[in-house]
Every structure is written in structure tokens, then in C-alpha cells.
Amino acid sequence: MDAPGNPSRRNLFRSETRLRFAALAILAVPALAIAAEASAPHQSGLVELYWTGGVFMHPILLCSIVGLALIVERAWFFARARTDTHRLMTEVLRALQDQGLESAQRMLHARRGPIAAVLHSGLARAKRGPEAVEKAIETAASIEIALLERGLIWLATVANIAPLLGFLGTVSGMIHAFEAIAAAEEVSAKLVATGIYEALITTAAGLIVAIPVQAAHNYFVSRIDKFVIDIEESGAELIDALTMHSKQWEHFLSTIHVPGAPAPR
Known about the structure:
The protein is an all-alpha fold. Helices cover 82% and strands 0% of the residues. The longest helix is centred in the last third of the chain and has 67 residues, at 189-255.
């Protein structure tokens, strides 16, 4: 992984924080607009449906804001972490072979993304042998994967809670509908249909929020799986290259004849 003082890593974390605040601020505007429109004398469309759905529409709206903010933040993070693994490994191996270990380290230090961070961590332990490199790659990979998975638990939580809130709102609405039916002297089809209509709004709202959030969660999980495969393949390729490079260097040293020493047989 990148060293603690790596400016690209610090800039990435600061940019993530700024993006989160900006996304929350932007996403708060629609909520304020809904509240302002709801206070107007004439309500129509989505605002009317929102208030007709009852009190459970408020936590569902909150889930939609949180889910959308997380989706925007994770999409931006994965866009910045995107790496052409084949091209990166080609450049690393060429630098390692032509210019040496330090040049390859400097090149990876300037790159961003989890794969470059893992390879840089492995090269930092190259002088300690292949086993140290492998251990460093495994440790760095676990840290980078944890960074990739950050926020996904909250996406899964939103995808699970939103429909449950919708169902709870439906149950609450049905209770009020039957209460109104019981209190009415004459039960009409309009009264029953109106109660059921109002109760089902929260179910629809919960599903509308949960479906895209769940789809985004599954997409991000698939991206993480690809990153894991790329990290494993590039790490194994780097270890093989370092092992070959070490053997070639040892063979070169064994061919050097020191004056006064017996020639190698």
C-alpha cells in the first residue's frame, strides 16, 4: 500500500470527504423543495402522493437521500480507482528490468488506485525476499479491499429497510382504513378503496427506493470482485518477476571473477 505520507492517498481521502458533504448538500435541495411545495395551498402530483402516504414516507425519503448520496460517492470512488491492470503491470515490469527496483517504486508511488498501492507495498519489501513481498501484498490487499467495501453495508441496509418501512406504512394505513370503516355508518366501496389506496403508497415508495439501491449495491460488489482478481493476478506476477530478477542478479554476481580468487567452475 502507499506509504502514510503519500500525497495522492491523502488527496483522495480529502476529495472523498468534500464530495460527501457536497452530495448531501445537493441532495438536500429536493427535500427542501418538496417541503416548500407541500406548504403551498395547491398540492399535486408527487407531493400529494407523498403526504397521502402518511408519516412513514418521511423515513423512506431519508433512505432515498442516503442511498443516492452513497451511490454517487461510491461511483466516484470506483471511477478514480479504475486501473488498466495489464498496462500497469507492463510498465512496472519494464521499469523493474530496465531501471531497477527504485524506479518501479517511484512509478507506483505516483499512481493512484488499489492495485498500484498493493504493488508498491510489495516492492517496498522486495529486498527482504519473496516471502516478505507476498506477506506485504496480502496485508495491503486486505486494507485496499476494506476501502473498496466501505459504505456498501449502508447501501445494503437502505435496500433492506426501505421496503420494510413501506410494508409497515401499509399495515398502519390498513389499520386506519379499517378503523374508518368501523366508525362509518354506511360502508361504501369508495371508502374502502380510498383507505387501501393510501396504504399501498408507502409500499410502492419503499420498493422504488430499494430496487435501484440494491442494483447499485450488486454492481459495486461485482466491481470489487474484479478488483480482487486483478490484485491477486498482479501480485502473483510481481512475485514471479522479482524472483526471476533476483536469480538473474545472483547469477550475474557469480560470474564476476575477483582477482586472486579461484575461477568459478
